Amino acid sequence: MRTPIIAGNWKMFKTVEEAVAFIDEVKGKAEVEGVESVICAPYTNLPALVEAVKGTSLKVGAQNLHWEDNGAFTGEISGVMLKSLGVHYVIIGHSERRAYFADTDETVNKKVHASFKHGLLPIVCVGESLEEREAGKTKDVCRVQTEAALQGLSAEQAAQTVVAYEPIWAIGTGKTSTADDANEVIGYIRERISVQFGSDVAGKVRIQYGGSVKPNNIREFMQQPDIDGALVGGASLEPASYIQLVEGA
Ligand code: PEP
Predict the structure, then answer these.
(1) Does residue 62 have its Cβ closer than 6 Å to ligand 1?
(2) Residue with CA at minimum distance from ligand 1 atom 6
(3) At what angle do helices 138-150 and 179-197 cross, to 10 degrees?
(4) What is the pLDDT of residue 69?
(5) What residues of the chain score a pLDDT lower than 50?
(6) Structural domain of residue 135, as residue ranges?
(7) Mutate to test the pocket of ligand 1, among 98, 163, 171 (most ligand atoms within 8 A of CB)
(8) ipTM of the complex
(9) Beta strands in 5-161 (DSSP E)
(10) Which CATH number does the domain housing residue 203 bear?
């Protein structure tokens, strides 16, 4: 009943030419009925990507936004700007942004509200560090981050939010959570969304797993009942690998 969603997070990779060449290669292939396929690219690629995916079912996302519409915020990009480009999704609160660019639970929440204000759909990242995992705090960390991110949304907005559970120690490291473990944490996140917004909303929210997902392990994750897709960094950069990820969903 929930449409699986594969989102590629290109991070700070690819020139405009490389981005367009990627779409030419995946067109018609990374498009599988019943699976949503989204490329989240650096800002500089977004106009060309929006043009390149026209006539396909592929969607384009950004990797961050500022919560204000405009103002004296040198180097920032707002929701109103992304919307005017034709972007559909925006990743919010990726652990790299929390670690290196000062995203906090509070700013993540403001960004989530800003994305809905402009008709963008947020992919909200939550997840624990290795230290927190070893201290048995995984669920607590995910609960606090998810509740804060969704605070103040309407039920309709909450139901449209995509949450990405990304254990930080699994991002770009080649280590993954086991599919069972990831499903358990994701099931818990869903339970907490049910407490916050009711079971109808919790049943609709799509929750992805992220952290070293590759073509050879995507199926294990997708077989789990609570996992609705994947947010993928490294393995989303090569067309052949991205196509296999979408097929694996
Ligand atoms: C990510 O960037 O969100 C991610 C999960 O990266 P990777 O797939 O490379 O671990």
Answers:
(1) no
(2) 233
(3) 40
(4) 98
(5) none
(6) 5-248
(7) 171
(8) 0.98
(9) 5-9, 36-40, 59-62, 89-92, 121-126
(10) 3.20.20.70
pLDDT digit string, tens, across residues 142-197: 999 999 999 999 999 999 999 999 999 999 999 888 999 999 999 999 999 999 99
Distance separating alpha carbons of residues 143 and 189, to the nearest angstrom: 6
Q: What is the model's pLDDT at position 1? A: 85
pTM: 0.98
Question: For the stretch 79-90, what's the b/e string if a residue is b when 16 or more beta carbons lie within 10 angstroms of its beta carbon?
Answer: bbbbbeeebbbb
Residues 62 and 43 sit within 8 Å (Cβ to Cβ) = yes
- Tokens for 184, please give them: 């358990």
Q: For residues 208 and 85, give the distance between their C-alpha atoms in angstroms, rounded to a whole number.
A: 25
Domain count, the chain: 1
Indicate if 166 belongs to the active site. Answer: yes
**What is the pLDDT at residue 166?**
98
Per-residue HEC secondary structure of 124-154 comes to EEECCCHHHHHCCCHHHHHHHHHHHHHCCCC
Q: Which atom of ligand 1 is nearest to the CA of 171?
A: 10
